[in-house]
Amino acid sequence: MRLAALLLVLLASPAYAATGDLILRDGAIYTLDAKRPWASVIAIHDGKIAFVGEYDETALTPYLKGARIVDLHGAMVLPGFHDSHVHPLAGAIRLLQCDLTTAKSLDDIGATIKAFAAANKGQPWVFCNNLDRSYADGLNRERLDAWMPDRPVFVRTTEGFLGWMNSTGLKAVGIDPEGTGAQSPDLPRDADHHPWGVMMGSVLVQARSKIPAPSATDYREALRRFGALANSYGITSVFDAAAAPEMLDTYHAADLAGALTLRVTAAQRVDPDKGLDQVDAMVERRAQLRGKRFHADAAKIFLDGEIDQYTAARLPHGGINQPQLDEMVQELDAEGFLIHMHAMGDGAVRAGLDAFEHAALRHGPADRRDQIAHVGVADPQDIPRFAKLGVIADFTPLWFQQGDAAFQSTIRVLGDRARWMYPMGSVVATGAHVTIGSDWPQETFKPLDEIQYAVTRQPLDGSPPSTQPEQRITLEQALAAYTREGAYAVREEKLDGTLEVGKAADIVVLDQNLFKIDVMSIHKTRVLLTLLDGAPVYCDSKFELP
């Protein structure tokens, strides 16, 4: 019987919806539980794992009656994946907009923009995303005007650090397209000193603040699309690394409606201009928003920018106000927040570790899950401090590729320090907790892609070779980072992250055993089935049981 057909029966069955009784057998079940790492059978009852081990009819008898039984014929079973640093709604809003990913030329870009505009005449702006930076030199205001003269157009690169507008768009955000002025790195001008149409830095931030915000309806649709995509990749839990108030409201409403197909932990963004006064409001918001699958228990602090844009905090003078940071972290720590920091430069990494150490010394032992995300470069003296202080390091393996343009520019900026770029292997070796986050809407948030990047530090096609082979991690370590460690980072280790009796049946089934294939083929593995609380939230409609 086709697995897809079986799962349609499961989804439609009131009995299954009530009991969640399901037995997966004859699988390569990798539990991530040190006491029992492998099993061949797992039974699910009322949304929880009731049995995991080898086939034992006596032990399984309580669950066999009325249970749906799926013979996996060796397919691999894992705990559901946790994406520990992602921007679901900020990214998924782009799914409603013009996508330039497949554009192969400037003419292609123009044709794609015009086709999208024609198909979406009711949208006042034409928002375009995922521009390949290799086209940056050929794109300007005049070219955009030729393609779209009467509607505002806003084009962004994938990472969002560069943006272009046509004349109508510039006028809409308060920039005179024919005005003259001094050259600025954030608003380049042409030979006649007219805005070229490209924006970056503070000008881009200011322009974005004047663009119409997505509606509540837009956000609801974005969350639906993100959830469906994430489930298809085997993801059952995400950490939203910087959720705006309207995004928090969207998650909360979906949770109340029973419409979340993911567990979501969201970070409330700390505004550096508001100081300690904002913490009380964050505490209140956290209490109001706690639900079954959603909570906003985290706080996000941006310590610096990006290495290749020379905005990262670097040693010896990081440029971070350490007393102010210590004070904020101490206040958030006292309130029990999951504190999540963006840190790319070695100066930012050290400042974050220092602030966490300061709070721990001040308040004593506590159930902390402090986290530093990205760790673009770290001083070797600071690497052992992650384990010593119990600070979690979150990495984005997508960025580890030598062939990536940002990777190459980062190497040029760092010089001799480049050997300590993204030191995932070194941090893992210390015994520290390490998680993986995609930072989507970067290029991908497919866990199997990220796992291969972490294990190989190469592009998916295997070339060029890794420049940092010593920083590679093992498949076991990568899987732990995407499951058990991800659950730990959001205080869910008693709920999920491993396949153990009593835990939620958050499960992903893959079409092949990752331990029995070449590592360069990991990304080719198909997700066959994703379960959340024992209920199927995704199945591969093309999969047929042998």
Q: What are the SSEs and their pairings?
A:
Layout (H helix, E strand, L loop, with lengths): L2 H10 L1 H6 L2 E9 L7 E8 L2 E6 L3 H8 L3 E4 L4 E4 L1 E6 L1 H5 L5 E2 L6 H14 L6 E6 L9 H7 L5 E5 L4 E4 L1 H6 L25 E3 H9 L6 H17 L2 E9 L1 H12 L6 E7 L8 H12 L4 E9 L19 H13 L3 E6 L2 H18 L7 E4 L8 H7 L2 E4 L9 H10 L9 H6 L4 E3 L10 H10 L18 H8 L1 H6 L17 E4 L16 E6 L2 E5 L7
Parallel strand pairs: 1-4, 1-5, 6-12, 7-8, 8-9, 12-13, 13-14, 14-15, 15-16, 16-17, 17-18
Antiparallel strand pairs: 1-2, 2-3, 5-19, 9-10, 10-11, 19-20, 20-21
Structure notes:
This protein is an alpha/beta fold and 546 residues long. The chain has 19 helices and 21 strands. The chain has helices spanning 3-12, 14-19, 57-64, 88-92, 106-119, 141-147, 167-172, 201-209, 216-232, 245-256, 278-289, 322-334, 346-363, 383-389, 405-414, 424-429, 447-456, 475-482, 484-489; strands spanning 22-30, 38-45, 48-53, 68-71, 76-79, 81-86, 98-99, 126-131, 153-157, 162-165, 198-200, 235-243, 263-269, 294-302, 338-343, 371-374, 392-395, 434-436, 507-510, 527-532, 535-539. Strands 1, 2, 3, 4, 5, 19, 20 and 21 form an 8-stranded mixed sheet that branches. Strands 6-12-13-14-15-16-17-18 form an 8-stranded parallel sheet. The longest helix is centred in the middle third of the chain and has 18 residues, at 346-363. The chain is globular, with a radius of gyration of 24 Å. The protein starts with a helix and ends in a 7-residue tail after the last strand.
